[in-house]
Amino acid sequence: MQICETDRLIVRRLSLEDVPALTEILSDPEVMKHSVRGVCDEAATREFIEWSLSCYESHCAGPWALIDKKSSELIGFCSAGPEMVADVEEISLGYRLARRYWNKGLASEAARAVLSYVFTQKLCKSVVVIIEPGHPASLKVAEKAGFSGFDELEFYGRAVRLYRLTSEQWETLNDNDSN
User: Fold this and answer.
1) What predicted TM-score, i.e. pTM, was given to this entire model?
2) Measuring CA to CA, which residue among 67, 76, 74, 71 is closest to residue 31?
3) Which of 69, 129, 158, 160 is 20 to 30 A away from residue 34, measured at CA?
4) What is the DSSP letter of 33?
């Protein structure tokens, strides 16, 4: 089921048919370098997709497949899914792309599309993004998506920055963009 699209991407629900293609991406140590899950084999990827399917049912959101419009290839995922942060369930933005798609602006494009979808559909009042300070590419994606200001905390034993974007901030950002 398609969620939304951008100029270059189709954003749709993951399915178990995506296990082989997503395993190829999530088994890359460079792609998963900053992931609390670590590198995923086929079984872990299947478990991740099954969890994603349950998120669609419980939250109407979760990790969504990113499909390149030109090639129809699955190139990664972008997520607005539940995450326990300091004993509070938050909706967290996350993204992973196959390495050959890095540095093309696709993560930023996907993040903005997913944020637009969750806020337009009123699926949540705020979204967080959790980033290690030593991950400049992810920090740049978050900034381009409209996140600013952060709290420092420990997440799965790692020092991270927690950024928050509210639906009101999103509306203001997009009102300013259209002027």
Assistant:
1) 0.94
2) 76
3) 69
4) T
